[in-house]
Amino acid sequence: MSKKDCKQDIRKCSHNTSSHIHHHRHEPNSKNSCICVVPIFNHLEAEQMEEIMKVMKSISYKKGEVLYREGDTSNVLYVVSKGKIRIYRLSESGKEQLLRILNPGDFTGELALFRESIHEAYAEAMIDTNVCVISKNDLQEFLLKYPTISLKILAEFSNRLEISEKQTTRFVTEKVAARLALFLGECTDGGVSPIEIELPMSKKDLASYLGTTPETISRTLVDFEDAGYIKQKRNRKIEILDLDGLLLI
């Protein structure tokens, strides 16, 4: 498998999102895309990627199916090759807190690489999703053999820690309107307004992520629209009309 083949495989994945996925069906041909899209592997040489691909298993999940639950043993790394997964926790009262959403190229279950552990959260397919899994033992061998994989994983840990710290700070110091404004600003990737973005999650998930309610999210978006900061469109699309003003809320 060459790196050129990887790029072609990624393109095929991106144009084949309507294909039917069966419950927990093994998808051997999608292992190529797992290697291609995930940053912790796709920097390797073709021969090294093929070596990893041999020990990976590809599994599909239907929308709403759970990959793992809080308390389950954590002994594999999950890599998203196609689809979307939500990672969330439940409080003792049953209230849900969305931690992050995984897209193709993202991974979860990495804590099992460093210690015997159980999952402390839930992972659920948001749409029909394909993942590749690699066992803890196999991956640890590759970490020793190819140290650059370790560096890529550490880089992702660092990124997640930064996001988590920002989120914690906002919960303590910012009101809901400011949290939502900052979130919308980050979705623009630094673009200049007016710019159209698409919310990466439902209002329910966004409310969970920002520590509020869907009703508050809807009401705040209407307030932003009335103030001339945004214009709401269909299918989760929002046009940011005044990014500078929005970020000053």
Automatic annotation (TrEMBL):
Residues 1-12 have a biased composition (Basic and acidic residues). Pfam families: cNMP_binding, HTH_Crp_2. GO terms for cellular component: cytosol. Residues 40-160 form the Cyclic nucleotide-binding domain. The keyword Transcription regulation applies. It comes from the Bacteria. Residues 1-29 are annotated as: Disordered. This is Crp/Fnr family transcriptional regulator. It comes from Enterococcus saccharolyticus subsp. saccharolyticus ATCC 43076.
